[in-house]
Amino acid sequence: MRYCVIGGANADIVATTFKPFVPNDSNPGAIRLIAGGVGRNIAHNLSLLGNEVVFLSFFGGDTFGWFTADSCRKAKVDISLSDAAPVGTRSCFLSINDCNGEMIGGVSDMVSANCITPEWIADKLKRVGPVDAFVADTNIPEESLAFLIDHAYAPLYVDAVSGAKAPKIAEAMKLSSKKHIHTLKCNLIENDIIGALEGIDRRFVSMGADGLDVIQGADKVHFAALPCEVVNTNGSGDALMAGLVHAGPQASIEVAALTGLRCAKITVECPDTVNKQLKALYEHLS
């Protein structure tokens, strides 16, 4: 399958404490620099699963940007249509994780994603070629998301990213003339913020350890999470989304949900945001 992903790409600074996190104090732990960004992670996971992936993004105009772009090349993700933001423009995410691998909080500095304008996307779509689906995250401006809703020539998947950025989906749908999204992936917080919204064929609501709800029309189906040993929850939602996309636009909700849950399980059991053993482990679970 061939997919086009449009979204954020940044360097992740991940700090994990050795013991339970103590607020307002210095906590001993480990700090790592890894490539991240919701769109970039989804693209990386899709590539690991054996798909051809075109990634459209603006990489930060600093050393972090070069680092992130290089990670895509190594992951065999096509970034030939992506660009570098102006020098000094940042794209970075800081995450603080408790000793159990759960994220306590994070700070996102992704100014470079604002460069992904409707005009820029329009130019890139002329050169993307045939794809089985488009995937977008809400790191891009709402006007750009609305443009994609109207001009994507294959089914569109949208990742809500965070509570702060989830409102862009409703705004984009207002700006759009087609007002149609094939699949929306969000968590409980993001789902509450988005609220009732017509024009979404499938809504996958992640509840972490409590599993996954899938809403299609008037029907809601629950899928239990797969048993796992949590090492790092960062990137699990991105892996879930990659699994939904990998299943294909024509897949049943059961096949899509199970594929996504398998990918999420494999990712939370790994210290990295993307598990490079995804393909072999997914095939083993299948």
Number of helices: 9
The major β-sheet equals: 8 strands, mixed
Separation of termini?
18 Å
Order of helices and strands: EEEHEEHEEEHEHEHEHEEEHHH
What is the number of independent domains? 1
The CATH architecture designation is 3-Layer(aba) Sandwich
Q: Under CATH, the topology is which?
A: UDP-N-acetylmuramoyl-L-alanine:D-glutamate ligase
Biggest sheet: strands side by side, in what order? 4-1-9-10-11-12-13-14
Give structural notes.
- 48% of the residues are buried.
- The protein is α/β, with parallel strands linked by helices.
- The protein has one domain: Ribokinase (UDP-N-acetylmuramoyl-L-alanine:D-glutamate ligase, 3-Layer(aba) Sandwich).
- 34% of the residues lie in helices and 27% in strands.
- It is built from 9 helices and 14 strands.
- It has helices at 38-48, 63-74, 118-128, 142-151, 167-175, 188-194, 236-247, 253-268, 278-285; strands at 2-6, 10-17, 29-36, 52-56, 58-59, 83-84, 92-97, 103-109, 133-137, 156-159, 181-187, 200-206, 212-216, 219-223.
- The strands form 3 sheets. The chain has an 8-stranded mixed beta sheet with strand order 4-1-9-10-11-12-13-14, sandwiched between helices. A 4-stranded mixed beta sheet has the order 3-2-7-8.
Give the secondary structure arrangement, pairings included.
Blueprint: E1 2-6, E2 10-17, E3 29-36, H1 38-48, E4 52-56, E5 58-59, H2 63-74, E6 83-84, E7 92-97, E8 103-109, H3 118-128, E9 133-137, H4 142-151, E10 156-159, H5 167-175, E11 181-187, H6 188-194, E12 200-206, E13 212-216, E14 219-223, H7 236-247, H8 253-268, H9 278-285
Helix pairs in contact: 1-7, 3-4, 4-5, 7-8, 8-9
